[in-house]
Design a protein that fits this description.
alpha/beta, Membrane-bound Lytic Murein Transglycosylase D, Chain A, SH3 type barrels, 3 domains, 7 helices
């Protein structure tokens, strides 16, 4: 699985800031002959790592991507072709964010309130090679999400497509993905079975991030500052500052606002021994932050500690991969 993160911070769904407790995964497909993720996902101008993200995802000169206000739709990820022609996944919302993807069903309920969602970028629906690749990517993404939120993909109503959501009364009347999967001998039953098998092997390789120097605790926002500039100044990322300060809109900070910075002054890095298999990495200190993959048993360096829900203490890895619960790590 190839995972890239490009949150759609200009989309009204992201700005709404509502969260859910994920109880399932809903699979969608775009309904348009365009397999390029860049059609739907673009970083904002000036966004942290804008050039790198465009190099990975590709560019959209039509400016009709979903990272814009005024849209009434937003999913958590897209699966499709990237700039190099390979297939991958681009995360577009935090996994526990309430998406706008299912609409309202005949029951009056909506899978928006319960399910993480992703779109598979369709082509002309005739290329078996492309289908095989994106199907496997979708399987591995769903397996990762089910492992993250302790979901059984074979349980009733957990992993469903938009079409099945309509049949259950929790989604609008769309045919995806059952207008496509059967063309290549697949169904949602085979998909759920493949997800269940993949849950025993799927791991995410997080993208490396720069380590953060332990030099200061806070920064007071001055006139003209942007979050991306502050992140660059202190060798961190916008996502880290957003998580650390509970910022709802990364494009809105005010003069005089005091921001917490990663790395407490005087903190001495230390090593820990991890003995458990596949200890989950998080994007921030707490189980309510996005999953970044796993680490295997071994010795790791901790460069920062923080309190967080779900564990007494969390530690940030020197590798830049993210945070781990120190409840499962023995200090060496």
């Amino acid at each position: 699985m190839r995972l890239i993160k490009c949150i759609l911070t200009a989309n009204d769904c992201y700005k709404a800031g509502r969260t859910i407790t994920p109880k399932g995964v809903m699979v969608h497909s775009t309904g348009a002959n365009n397999p390029l993720v860049a059609r739907y996902v673009q970083p904002l101008e000036g966004q942290s790592e804008e050039a790198k993200l465009k190099e990975q995802i590709g560019t959209n000169r039509n400016a009709n991507d979903w990272n814009n206000p005024g849209l009434d739709v937003c999913v958590h990820a897209f699966v499709g072709k990237l700039a190099d022609g390979g297939v991958g996944t681009v995360q577009t919302l935090p996994w526990n964010h309430r998406g706008w993807h299912a609409g309202t069903g005949t029951s009056g309920g909506s899978a928006n309130n319960t399910h993480i969602s992703f779109e598979i970028c369709e082509d002309a629906l005739t290329d078996a090679g492309y289908f095989s690749k994106i199907y496997q990517e979708a399987v591995e993404l769903t397996a990762m999400l089910c492992k993250t939120y302790n979901l059984d993909p074979k349980a009733d109503g957990v992993v469903i497509c938009h079409c099945e959501g309509y049949d259950r009364g929790v989604a609008s009347n769309h045919a995806d993905v059952m207008h496509w999967f059967p063309k290549f001998g697949k169904s949602m039953d085979t998909f759920r079975s493949d997800v269940s098998k993949a849950m025993g092997t799927t791991q995410v390789k997080p993208q490396p991030q720069p380590t953060v120097p332990s030099t200061t605790k806070t920064y007071t926002v001055a006139k003209g500052d942007t979050l991306s500039e502050i992140a660059a100044k202190y060798s961190t990322t916008v996502d880290t500052l957003v998580q650390l300060n509970g910022i709802q809109n990364p494009n809105l900070i005010v003069v005089g606002q005091v921001l917490k910075l990663p790395g407490a002054k005087g903190f001495e890095p230390y090593t820990v021994k991890v003995s458990v298999t596949e200890l989950r990495i998080r994007s921030g200190p707490g189980t309510d932050t996005a999953a970044q993959g796993f680490i295997e048993p071994g010795v790791y360096t901790i460069v920062e500690e923080a309190d967080g829900p779900g564990a007494k203490r969390w530690g940030r890895l020197k590798s830049g991969a993210g945070w781990i619960s120190l409840d499962y790590a023995e200090k060496v």
